[in-house]
Specification:
about 500 residues; alpha+beta; Alpha-Beta Plaits; GMP Synthetase, Chain A, domain 3; 5-stranded antiparallel β-sheet; globular; binds flavin-adenine dinucleotide
Length: about 500
């Protein structure tokens, strides 16, 4: 049977019939009382029960889950997929989950790469893609009110017709939703100019664990206590369900300029980025590929390659590019067609599923690190993963730059002869890579978030601040029904078989 469920997760050749899949992550899956679901249906809320729909909706782009699929394992399977179309319906579903003690896992495009939307304890998968579309554009204030389940490419196409852009362009723009961006604290590829999603958000509508609805923020700037909007940004569906948001807009760019440079070392290229950002320039993209990544991609030999792209108002872009040129005088100028090549390929995601089928185990790890620790963080992660048995590649690029630091985006892969070793290699690689990065002063994540895969590092990464997050969770979701098993937060539904 064809799956009706929306969600562009990578196509999978399941090795066994989906009805016979074993569940990898939890011993028991919470079943939802039948009368609960029929009650939702009676109220006109869409509920999907078929095995195919439940299996498809219960996975995301976590690379390891692709490997499990080839082994006949599903990470978990929701008992039902519920697809509300309005905030009131979301509130009704969550209130019912609260009454019955049923876990509820929010999902947007399911493009997360850490298992964050996998319903590890079954229960309800709350598919939010039914809440879609622009609700209002305030052209004077340049703010858009948009439903949380709106996919990024649709949002930008609709805004472009009005002469605006949000400017949030993740590689996964056509796979991900506004609610998912906010829930994961995501970054677009042009965030140096437009900001990360936490800079772009003005306010939120959120359904809390008891089904009540709150509105946060809404003003350009405010000093009425802590910023409640930011409590929910990055909370990955564990503190509330985002149903609506207000985001800042920018004008469609008038001009786009590019340049490219080759450096002798990764450190020298990043140092140029540091100087550029600290002079107050904000080129939309300022990306440094180490030579391991640059050579096969751009045919640039031993060079560490800096790609620069800026867009926006003509005067600002010209000024930015002048600062870039001044700070790169010691580098080799490269053909700016390299930037066009990156621009053309920037949303291509076809290769990822293919790599898994060829027997590779791989992942990427993005962290933020101060400029003063960037070189040692880069070296440490390359050294520890590079020393692992069977490693085929470990490399990095710097993908987002700030005045105080940057995002390092590592890639690691192996192709063990024995397929049973793949999962152990994956876990070990994450253990050494994340711990090396944390020891070098890096954050746990820059834009992918935490989900399930990074949950084990949370207490270590946040230190004593982690207890504040636990207190927030217990206050906002006393029954622990919202996305249990994620972010290292207390989980009342039993064991999850993951380190
Ligand atoms: C090929 C590829 C490229 C990527 N590139 C980028 C990139 O450039 N930048 C970047 O930031 N990320 C990137 N990602 C990661 C992913 O796209 C982002 O994390 C994205 O923000 C997830 O959005 P989503 O709608 O798919 O959320 P989902 O994967 O469905 O959910 C992610 C998390 O958010 C929660 N959630 C989703 N919607 C809501 C809601 N409305 N309310 C509360 N919680 C919610 C879920 O419970 C889950 O915990 C990439 C992923 C892939 C596969």
């Amino acid at each position: 049977m064809e799956s009706e469920t929306v969600g562009p997760t990578p196509p999978i050749d399941w090795s066994v019939d989906r009805a016979d899949l074993d569940i990898r992550l939890a011993a028991s899956q919470v079943e939802v009382p039948a009368e609960f679901l029929s009650d939702l249906e009676d109220r006109g809320i869409e509920v999907l029960f078929s095995v195919d729909d439940r299996v498809e909706a219960s996975r995301d782009w976590w690379p390891l889950a692709q490997i499990w699929a080839l082994e006949g394992l599903a990470p978990a399977i929701a008992d039902a997929v519920v697809r509300p179309a309005t905030t009131t319906e979301v509130a009704d579903v969550v209130a019912a989950c609260s009454r019955h003690g049923v876990p509820v896992t929010a999902a947007g495009g399911r493009s997360g790469v850490l298992g964050s939307s996998v319903p590890v304890h079954g229960g309800i998968l709350l598919d939010l893609t039914g809440l879609a579309g622009i609700l209002l554009v305030d052209s004077d204030s340049m703010v858009v009110e948009v439903a949380a389940g709106t996919f990024g490419d649709t949002l930008e196409a609709d805004l472009a017709e009005k002469g605006f852009t949000v400017g949030h362009w993740p590689q996964s723009i056509s796979l991900s939703t506004v609610g998912g961006w906010l829930a994961c604290r995501g970054a677009g590829q042009l965030s140096n100019r437009y900001g990360k999603i936490e800079d772009l958000v003005v306010g939120l509508e959120v359904v809390l664990a008891d089904g009540s609805v709150v509105i946060t923020g809404g003003h350009a700037r405010a000093a009425a206590g802590p910023d409640l909007t930011q409590v929910f940004v990055g909370s990955e569906g564990t503190l509330g369900i985002i149903t609506r948001s207000w985001l800042r807009l920018h004008h469609q760019p008038k001009v786009r300029l590019t340049s490219a440079f080759g450096f002798e070392s990764f450190g020298a290229a990043n140092d140029a980025c540091r100087r550029i950002m600290q002079r107050g320039a904000t080129p939309a993209a300022l990306r440094v590929y180490d030579s391991t990544e640059a050579a096969p991609r751009f045919d640039t030999g031993d060079a560490h390659v800096l790609l620069v792209l800026d867009e926006g108002d003509t005067h600002l872009v010209e000024a930015d590019m002048a600062v870039v040129a001044e700070e790169c005088t010691t580098a080799d100028p490269l053909d700016s067609s390299l930037v066009e090549q990156w621009w053309e390929d920037r949303n291509d995601v076809a290769g990822l599923a293919a790599i898994t089928k060829k027997g590779f185990v791989f992942d990427t790890m993005e962290v933020t690190v101060s400029w003063s620790n960037l070189d040692s963080c880069y070296r440490s992660v390359l050294d520890v993963v590079g020393a692992m048995d069977g490693v085929r590649v470990v490399s990095a690029h710097q993908s987002h730059a700030y005045s105080d630091g940057a995002c390092l985006y590592f890639t690691f892969a192996a192709r063990p002869e024995d397929p049973t070793v793949r999962e152990a290699w994956y876990v070990a690689a994450w253990d050494v890579a994340a711990r090396a990065a944390l020891s070098a002063g890096a954050s746990l994540s820059h834009h992918h978030g935490v989900g399930l895969n990074r949950a084990r590092f949370m207490a270590e990464a946040l230190g004593s601040g982690f207890e504040v997050l636990v207190t927030l969770k217990e206050a906002l979701d006393p029954q622990g029904i919202l996305n249990p098993g994620k972010m290292g937060l207390p989980d009342r539904f039993g064991e999850v078989f993951w380190p």
